[in-house]
Amino acid sequence: MPDVNDEPLAANEISTRSAGQSAGQRAAKAGLSGRRIVALAGGIGGARFLRGLLAALREDDPAATVTVIGNTGDDISLFGLRVCPDLDTVMYTLGGGIEESQGWGRSAESFAVKDELLAYGAGPMWFGLGDRDIATHLLRTQWLKEGLTLSQVTARLCERWQPGVRLLPMSDDRVETHVLIDDGTSRRLVHFQEWWVRLHAAVPAIEITAVGADEANPGPDVVDAILNADVVVLPPSNPVVSIGTILAVPGIREALRSTTAPVVGVSPIIGGAPVRGMADACLTAIGVETSAAAVGALYGPELIDGWLVDDVDAASGVDGVVVRSHPLFMTDIDATAAIAHAALDLADFVTL
Amino acid sequence: MPDVNDEPLAANEISTRSAGQSAGQRAAKAGLSGRRIVALAGGIGGARFLRGLLAALREDDPAATVTVIGNTGDDISLFGLRVCPDLDTVMYTLGGGIEESQGWGRSAESFAVKDELLAYGAGPMWFGLGDRDIATHLLRTQWLKEGLTLSQVTARLCERWQPGVRLLPMSDDRVETHVLIDDGTSRRLVHFQEWWVRLHAAVPAIEITAVGADEANPGPDVVDAILNADVVVLPPSNPVVSIGTILAVPGIREALRSTTAPVVGVSPIIGGAPVRGMADACLTAIGVETSAAAVGALYGPELIDGWLVDDVDAASGVDGVVVRSHPLFMTDIDATAAIAHAALDLADFVTL
Fold first, then answer.
1. Sign of CA dihedral B25, B28, B31, B36
2. Where would a tag sit more exposed on chain A, N or C end, judged by fewer CB atoms within 10 A?
3. Cross-chain Cβ contact A131/B113 below 8 Å
4. Distance CA A97, CA A90 (A)
């Protein structure tokens, strides 16, 4: 982030300032074509935002390149298969292979393998591995076993999907988010997916830990991409278990602090509730209020220069961060592209 | 095999001797109830014979136990999955899960995973892994990785299928049949499955080798099962790459020689052609004529006491082995049960 001395401004004031100028117009005016944009992303929310971002760039800055640093803390091994839910959600969503109705998994999916595993009495069954999805995991697992890194494997898988972004795992090292829960009789650590998918985050999390993050290295190009970016965006992904886990990899948070690029975030909280998912359960676990202002403050001026909140949260202030408001419900690609436009506008604004 | 001094007898003479007595009647007469029957088996032919054998035993000797020593030389790793085609064919066939129309693979199979792998441009594609089948391979691979032996894994998989036999892999050690071929430009070694499935055994095999067999140990209970058997049967499996590979594991051939049980084989060749499969290509590779007599002689009196051939081959003689004839086409379960009856009759006969 650049050295920003701005005091937080009222949203209305900011909105007035930027009115009538699209990011493209602004970019063209400032000679900002072919921008190098970096986004940190989790799963569904991040992937949908990125689809809007690409749509916005097609119009405004078709020469722009987008590098996505994907969360791998949700990764899990199931039936010997290495599953990377967030990377795959980004890849499938941007590559046109996602099941739109749910936002994850492959479109037109079938479950013959799962049914058979069930017939064998094998578990766990709470994680729905579809047949088409399994092909991705089979190749990933095979290639990892052959000695390729997760970054190399992800690049290979993307050769098919052509997501229109460079998708980089946050790290090639194993990081797994574990959750300490108390189910009434005892405290135990469970894999994030077990808490999220099997328990629907209904059992309160006492502690959320990115196991292995301390010793993990950022993936190749991750730090360089941030340092050489023209804009860095934090999409409305889960601030604890998606963005938070990426930031837990030593070097990534520092890169965000050091980069001269503007860093802007898009709030995943609208009017005190997560746009989707169960971010509130994660925020509660780390003692943060479920509000746009609180999440903005969680990132804080050390990390972000601008914070885009929904119009209902327009009054939110974050010390040392420029806050601007815009309707943030990603109801369709046009609405999402408009959010991305607003984020890029905000990035331009905080750079000036 | 017992010490047999019988000269080979003309088939007609033998048929006359045994006429009117089923194996069950004979077994009952001789007090042979609850016989311990051991069969060495390859894939489709072996599995179908075994189904007939079980049908025959349900009628004649319901207390009999059948131990199947399965060929694992055809095993192959595909997409990181450990595939055991012959074990699975036996398990699926006897467990009611086989695709009857082809004799291998799961019934009502789908191919979503395969289609996706193809969309990734991944290979090889000549081996048709179905979705339901993949569940079996996923569990096997996972359990092997967890440290279970192939024998233990096979027993676990059979808990679901209840094949009605004890299915023992010939060895827990890796043995892979490789084939030396000359494709016109160069000589190269290919995995048996590549020669068999991809090349349809149309390129002549110069040499067939069970790689690893020399150092392999028989699976637990394999030798004991043979030594403690009341009857040992060699079904009409491929004498080179199925039965031959099992016999290549040090200790198994010796056990067949040492057992006091009668050992009888069923010819896979009828009228100079294999009943199914491409056994002729394998026999040619080892310099053996494709005839019932030649295969009987390949096993020879050191291994077998009785040799069941088709009626069209009734004139076949094998030095030191009792040859008897019976219609050998396994057209349905009744016909196959009758073949099994004839084999058990022959076993009784050579014991007398």
1. positive
2. C
3. yes
4. 10
Element (H, E) at A166: strand A166-169
* Cα gap B336→A298, rounded to integer Å: 74
Residues of B with CB under 8 A from a CB of A: 79-81, 106, 109-110, 112-117, 119-122, 131-132, 134-136, 138-139, 141-142, 145, 157, 159-160
Q: Is B337 helix (H, G, I), strand (E, B) or coil?
A: helix
For chain A, what is the largest distance between any 2 Cα atoms, rounded to a whole number of angstroms?
63
**Amino acid identity of A306?**
G
> Cβ A132–B139 below 8 Å, yes or no?
no
ipTM of the complex: 0.87
pLDDT in tens, B306-342: 999 999 999 999 999 999 999 999 999 999 999 999 9
* Distance separating alpha carbons of residues A303 and A84, to the nearest angstrom: 26
The whole-angstrom distance between A198's CA and the closest CA on chain B is 21
DSSP 3-state of A191:
strand
CA A283, A286, A288, A293 torsion-angle sign: negative
DSSP string, B46-59: HHHHHHHHHHHHHH
pLDDT tens digits for B64-89?
Answer: 999 999 999 999 999 999 999 999 99
What gap in Å lies between CA A118 and CA B257, rounded to an integer?
A: 43
